Structure formats: structure tokens, C-alpha cells
Amino acid sequence: METRTLGKDLTVTAIGLGCMGFSHGYGKPTDVDEAVKTIRAAYDMGYRFFDTAEIYQGTNPDGSINYNEELVGKALHDVRDQVVIATKFGIAAHEGTGIKVDSSPKTIRKSVEGSLKRLNTDHIDLYYQHRIDPNVEPETVAKVMQELMDEGKITHWGISEANEDYLRRANAVCKVTAVQNRYSMMYREYEALFPVLEELNIGLVAFSPLANGLLTGQIKQSSFSDKDLRNKMPQFTPEALEKNKELLALLDKIAADHDATPAQISLAWMVNKKPYIVPIPGSRHLNRIEDNLKAAQIKMTPEEVAQIDKALDAVPMSEVFGGTKIEK
């Protein structure tokens, strides 16, 4: 499996597995045993980079909490030294249409202890601030990250949905290894951050690289289960699905040229664009998990990537979900 380096020295597979959907966001959680089995199967097929967070949780049929970190910990415990596990702190709760954030030093320390316990590990390989807390300075967060590194509880840290100013200030106190930002063919705003990432030698871990599944080309109508977050996402309205047909036709054409699927092309496009981009698509289905991993084998020239960018600039597409607002 192709690998790449985030930051100075964190080696990961070129494509990682986003584990959120087993517990959170896409309807009822996957059965615990089935989820553990699937995550372990992903390891067996070649994945070595797994992403979770303390806030990813759902409710099992018996009323118990389905903690995503526990699933990851159970699946990978006996191969712990062969994988990179990323988790996150800083989202305290979901509140209505927004989220409540808390990155105070006291909360960070409580969070890291909880994550270590749920993951059944003595260290976290990549610890992200899940969202920026407007009430806590980046220097304060970075200072705590350095302390956790000195204590051996984490080895690298990153920031999710980072902007340039926050990233520079945090990085000046404690070296940032990666940002985890929303990035896909439909959401390219963070390309403006590429020069900063290159200057500071910081990797980009791309979440929602398939626009929450739209870029697979498999979603023809919005008929999701209850409590599926996609019910409220703008790219899945009937009008949006109609508007995005030309985009999906473009993907189908490129996929045919490479004997690949639209999802694989969506991932290969970003993997071939920059050597420091690592997408982390999520799925509950082993066939899709395997297909996603194979996207790293698809080679595109810089000229082809540029041609795709140009086509994306011209093709009509709907609005796409850009994140949940932070409650002040």
C-alpha cells in the first residue's frame, strides 16, 4: 500500500478510513461486533490510518452508548503498533443546528484521558482540535499539546477546519502535523491554504472527500433513514440531485478512462494533486472500503489533474454541506 508522510515524520497509508459512520451521523449505529469486524477487515486489506473522535457516538438497541473510539480500540488493539490512530477533542455537544465547543486546558486533559481509555491505548498518534474554540487562544491549545507530547500521551497534533491565522499562531508554539479540513471536488475552498501548508510542512487530511457520498454516483434520490445527517444537506435535495447530473456525468467519463469508479476518481484526483493530501472516506460496506483503498493506485499526470480542475470550475453543481455552525 502506498504511504505518505504528514508533517515531519508521521507515515500513513495514502488513504485512511473514516470510522465515524459506524456510530454517528448516518442513522442507527452498526452492530458493535459487526463494526469491529469491519474495521479489522479494513486493516487486513491494507488500511493503516484510522480516524475517530470522542464526540462520535450513538445509541445501541439496548440503550447503551456506542462509542466510536471503543470500536476502533477493540478492532486494532493487537496490531496497535502497526497503525496510526487519529482522534479529536473540542466538541462538547451538538445543540440543535449547531455545536458547542470547549478547548479549555482542563477539558482537553479530561478528553485525552477519556480517549486513551476508550481506545485502550497508551498514546494517540494524531490528536486533533476538532473545531476552533473562539474563547481559547491557539497558543493556549498548542501549549497543552506540547505538554501532552512531553508526557507521551500524544505523538502528533492537528487542527480540524483550520484557517491560516490560527494555524500559524498554533504552529509557532507546537509544530502542527496536519489539518483535517473538508475537501472534495464540490468543496475546494481550502485550496487557498495549500501555500501555507507547503511553507510550514503540514499535511492535509481530507474529510468528506466524497461529499458525504454524492460523488460515488450511487445516490439517485434522497431517501435516507431517520437521524441521517444527509437529510439536511443541500446536495441531496431533489433539485440539487438534478443539478448535479452533469458533474456526475463528468466523473463517469473520467472513471471510464481509468477503468475505475466515480468514487475512486474523486479520491485519486486529490491524492495525485498534492503529495501531502490524505483523504479519509468512510463506509460501513467492505466492498466500498476496498474500492476506496484501490484509488491510491490510480495515477494521474499533473496535466490531467489540472484539466479536471478546469472542468470542475465550469460544470454546474449545487451547494454542498459546509459544516455546522459553532454556538457562541
UniProtKB/TrEMBL annotation:
Segment forming the signal sequence: none
Entry annotated with the keyword Oxidoreductase: yes
The protein, known as: Aldo/keto reductase
CDD domains listed in its UniProt record: AKR_AKR13C1_2
Protein's UniProt keywords contain Cell cycle: no
Cited InterPro entries: AKR, Aldo-Keto_reductase, NAD(P)_OxRdtase_dom_sf, NADP_OxRdtase_dom
Organism of derivation: Limosilactobacillus balticus
UniProt keywords, alphabetically: Oxidoreductase
Segments forming domain NADP-dependent oxidoreductase: 14-312
